[in-house]
Amino acid sequence: MHLEVRTADGTPAAPADVVLAERHCRLRDPALAAALASRCDAAHRLGVRQSLLCLEQLLYPLWDDATRPAT
């Protein structure tokens, strides 16, 4: 999958603005991430819009876990 991140005004985001210093994180709910990834993959075969929505649902918890680690 290829992702292109854009800023609020629509210009491509710089990698330094998107890539976190830590390249890994501990997931709070790995089963949820696996289920969402599977759903995203299946949706990709059905259509672009559904795939993008599933990908967005997957990225939010991943970003949350990476930027606010569990105690």
Task: Give structural notes.
The chain has 71 residues and is an all-alpha fold. It is 58% helix and 0% strand. The protein contains three helices and no strands. Helix 2 packs antiparallel against helix 3. The radius of gyration is 13 Å and the shape is flat.
Short overview:
This protein is mainly α. Helices cover 58% and strands 0% of the residues.
Radius of gyration: 13 Å
DSSP helix count? Answer: 3
> What is the number of E strands?
0
**First-to-last CA distance:** 31 Å
User: What structural class results from the helix and strand content?
Assistant: mainly alpha
Range of helix content: 55-70%
What letter string, H or E per element, gives the SSE order? HHH
Shape: flat
Poorly predicted residue ranges: none
Q: How would a textbook summarize the main sheet?
A: none
Give average pLDDT, whole number. 82
Strand content: under 5%
